[in-house]
Specification:
The chain folds into 3 domains: 41 residues; 70 residues, Type Iii Antifreeze Protein Isoform Hplc 12, CATH 3.90.1210.10; 102 residues. It is 29% helix and 23% strand. The protein has 6 helices and 10 strands; from the N terminus they run αββααββββαββααββ.
Length: 262
Amino acid sequence: MYKKKKDVIGFIYEKKDWITMLVLSVLGISLIHQALEKQKQRIGLDAVVIEVLIADRTIEQGSAFKEEDLRIEVMPEKYVPIGALYPSDAPKFAGQRVARTIHEGEMILSSALDIEFALDNASSKIEDGYRALSIPVDEISSVSYNIEAGDHIDLLTTVDDARGQNTTMTILQNVTVLSTGTQEDRDYGSITLMVLPSEAPLIIHTLQSHGISIILRNPYDPKTRKDLPMISKQDIIQAGFLNHLQSERDQRINILRGQTQP
């Protein structure tokens, strides 16, 4: 009887030891798991990761790189610098020249590329701070379709002044033409201008309310004037005003009469 009681007591103690060990094991595993999670957070293993382009060999300044010169690596998004190139960028930039030497293992950044040659889409031609705006043209307003991409133009319109008289004025000078219609279409129906954000509403409102006329500028004459007149019917019939215009024209050294003459 005594032996059986001793065996039972021994079994109980052994069971308690086993339970204690189990609890300690679970607690230890939990602590280890928490420590690992904190470590992952510290080194960024739990962060969102993205693929970036890495130079698989050294690419010398001025040379072009090919897609086979690149490899893809994965890294946490928060560590990817601004300007990093992604796998989807490879076809667009492959074959372009680099502005500085890119060493093997270095992340490919847009700042390392000669962007002037790398980008060839329409939006890349818009200078910083400007916008592209298309306006309709016909044979007359396009100067007989002689306006081409890269030209500079002035925009004029005719409105009613405070006296109710039609008045013609220049609204913008030296506006850059980005493109004209399509490359295949000689008799295009629109031109695209590079304008400031503040100029776009002026052009659109004038176009819809009064219409716009275009004059083509000499490419070597970027100067603008602040004294351009606003012309009404009254001005046209005044001999003094017309004589003033003719005098200003006569003072020009070069007079355009189909060709430049001394």
